[in-house]
Amino acid sequence: QKEVEQNSGPLSVPEGAIASLNCTYSDRVSQSFFWYRQYSGKSPELIMSIYSNGDKEDGRFTAQLNKASQYVSLLIRDSQPSDSATYLCAVIAGGTSYGKLTFGQGTILTVHP
Amino acid sequence: DTGVSQDPRHKITKRGQNVTFRCDPISEHNRLYWYRQTLGQGPEFLTYFQNEAQLEKSRLLSDRFSAERPKGSFSTLEIQRTEQGDSAMYLCASMPTRTSRETQYFGPGTRLLVL
After folding, report:
1. Which residue, among B81, B86, B79, B78, has the nearest Cα to B114 in the 3D structure?
2. Is some CB atom of chain B closer than 8 A to the CB atom of A72?
3. Which candidate from A4, A32, A105 shows the least CB-CB separation from B102?
4. How crowded is residue A37: how many other Cβ atoms within 10 Å of its Cβ?
5. Cβ atoms within 10 A of the Cβ of B72, count?
6. Is B40 touching A (CB cutoff 8 A)?
7. Distance of CA A93 to CAs A26, A33, A99, A104, B38, Å?
8. Which residue in A17, A30, A35, B66 could disulfide with A48, CB within 3.0 to 4.6 Å?
9. B56 vs A49: CB contact, 8 Å cut-off?
């Protein structure tokens, strides 16, 4: 079992729709959770971080965390073609992990006009 | 530009050659990470420095790989006797030590192609 798993997609949504991206993780003591966006050929860019159960909203983005289910998700409202990218879920484990990120394989999102 | 910088941005080499990449973290960021990303995969952790001390290395970092961070500033990642399987994007990230939120800032990456 991979430490962090995402649906690889691709996920295709029409412009203006809600895109829902999901991620599960295996380490129960994980404390910090992140969503990165990566455009083709570019480096990852942090869009959301979440540390406690519940929802966190930032503009059109909402991150949801459920530690009991070991599940974290990202909702993108009013999706735009510019949101088309690979979305990476990343986790920092608890304990002495020195803050290293463990990434999922990424979900490719395409927003079509 | 006060972000993380990496050099070179692209490198093409022949199998068996040695290559060295450089990362300049954000000023005063004590923590520095190297990751490797292959096509269609998420980045994978390679190694971590706190100041000049290399505190963790992944099993992915074979004997052909070595990383340094002299004086706790910039870092270098060297690959000796490159193999075609080393072709990947090599990413560097930095983070301040004293932070309640562990946000890593990534550089633009070095894309390596081994022929």
Report:
1. B86
2. no
3. A32
4. 21
5. 15
6. yes
7. 10, 9, 8, 13, 22
8. A35
9. no
Per-residue pLDDT of chain A (113 residues; tens, 9 = 90+): 678 999 877 999 999 999 999 999 998 888 899 999 999 999 999 999 999 999 999 999 999 999 999 999 999 999 999 999 999 999 997 766 688 999 999 999 999 99
B12 at the A interface (CB within 8 A)?
Answer: no
Supply the pLDDT for residue A7.
Answer: 83
CB A46 within 8 A of CB B103: yes
Does residue B4 contact residue B23 with C-beta atoms inside 8 Å? yes
Chain B residues close to A100, C-beta within 8 Å: 33, 45, 48, 56
Residues of chain A neighbouring B36 (CB-CB closer than 8 A): none
Neighbouring C-beta atoms of residue B4, cutoff 10 Å = 23
Q: Identify all chain B residues contacting A92, using CB atoms and an 8 Å cutoff.
A: 102
Q: What is the pLDDT of residues B91-104, one digit of tens each?
A: 999 998 766 667 88
The tokens for A83 are 């949101």
| B48, B91, B93: residue with CB nearest A98 | B48
